[in-house]
Amino acid sequence: MDLARFISLLVTESLYFACPLSFHDPYEGLLPKSHIDANAVALAPMVKDIISLKNQLAYQFADSIDLRHLDAKINSLTPLGASREASREYVVCCWHISEYESEAMWKIYSPSGQGIAIESTVEQLRLSLDNIKGLIIDSVRYMDFDKAAIEKGHKHYVLFLKRKSFEYERELRAILHLPKRKEVEGDYIKCNLNTLITNIHISPFAPAYFRNVVETLCLGKLRSLDKPVIPSQRYIKSNYGIKT
After folding, report:
1. Residue 149: its pLDDT value, please?
2. Model confidence band, residue 209 (pLDDT cutoffs 50, 70, 90)
């Protein structure tokens, strides 16, 4: 994480769990092609019935009925639509599994050289979240999405699969199911930082002063500074009253 995220961790005493829909990988939450094809075949009769019902209602009631809810239902039954709707209900905290530091991870996730890595264990992660209900912790499995066969009987599937090209991440995920979520933003989940953290590592590319900054933050030695904090107005829209 960067320094700002680390400060947020200390201030909120919470781990940030992101919504999968905010991730850059367009395959996030999708299943390999063999699964998608199988699901499409299984759902085809239901989709066909809903489309037929929609057409009947549109013919009988013309402009007097709103059929958009049926369109949404049809979309939710397509492989992509179903995946996006399911992913909206989950939040994810991502970790890297390794006994050693990773040069690649430092360079990818802290390109400015001011990165911080939190070291923990699976058991510490679980305990720090107080064994919160619905928590699932498992390793991501990397598959060939074009050729992989259906793997039957696995408890943890969607959101624990990624394409082979991401294998270098060696990712472990903590996932929570929050079914009432509607937004794409993440959630801050309270945790016990002393239980969670074994060590705090700073980037090998960090400037000399960076370690002192991190140690000062951890010891709570920051002085109080009662001054206003002002967000830049550089890109605020003008208020000239011009109508378009």
Report:
1. 78
2. very high
Over range 199-223, report the average pLDDT: 92
What is the Cα–Cα distance from 108 to 203, expressed in whole angstroms? 11
* Separation CA 22–CA 24 (nearest Å): 7
Nearest to 159 by CA among 109, 77, 86: 86
pTM of full prediction above 0.90: no
Encode the chain in three state secondary structure. CEHHHHHHHHHHCEEEEECHHHCCCCCCCCCCHHHHHHHHHHHHHHHHHHHHHHHHHHHHHHHHCCCHHHHHHHHHCCHHHHHHHHHHCEEEEEEECCCCCCHHHHHHHCCCCCEEEEECCHHHHHHHCCCCCCCEEEECEEECCCCCCCCCCCCCCCCCEEEHHHHHHCEEEEEEECCCCCCCCCEEEECCHHHHCCEEEECCCCCCCHHHHHHHHHHCCCCCCCCCCCCCCCCCCCCCCCCC
Give me the torsion for CA of 143, 144, 147, 151, rounded to 10°. 10
Q: What sign has the CA pseudo-torsion 29, 31, 37, 42?
A: negative
| Domain boundaries of the chain, sorted by first residue | 3-23+91-219
Contact 70, 53 (CB under 8 A): yes
Q: What is the pLDDT of residues 77-89, one digit of tens each?
A: 565 555 666 677 8
